Amino acid sequence: MAAKTATAARPDLNAYNEAITMDTPELVDALRNLLGPTLVAYLGRVKETRAVRQWAEGSRKIANPADVERLRVAYRAARMISERDSKKVAQSWFQGLNPFLDDWSPARLLRDGDLETDGARVIGAARQFVAVG
Questions:
Q1: I want to staple 103 with a disulfide (CB 3.0 to 4.6 A). Which of 35, 62, 72, 97 is the partner?
Q2: Which helix (H) or strand (E) holds 72?
Q3: Superkingdom of this entry's organism (predicted)?
């Protein structure tokens, strides 16, 4: 019962738990379903969506562990937003300039910023969006 109370108070915990328990192909597939292959390719620092498909199939590995962690953070934020609104809203949120992120898009900040500090900022901005819109 305590776990249910915790997730009711912090709905983002479901997204967190899913993100850390999925293996990489599952993670990429779930994120691709939420954000689309082009945005996942951008976040994963590859130029073609074929790589995203191959990651999801498990026929290609993501070389840099930091890229996998970046996709986990992106999944958490996308999952929170799509749970409240829709996939289209999550896609728009990731691409739009965000006032809580000094007018950077969450996708660009995740891709080009420091994962530890900027990843936390993206999650915070997603929580803010889910809470108040």
A1: 97
A2: helix 65-84
A3: Bacteria
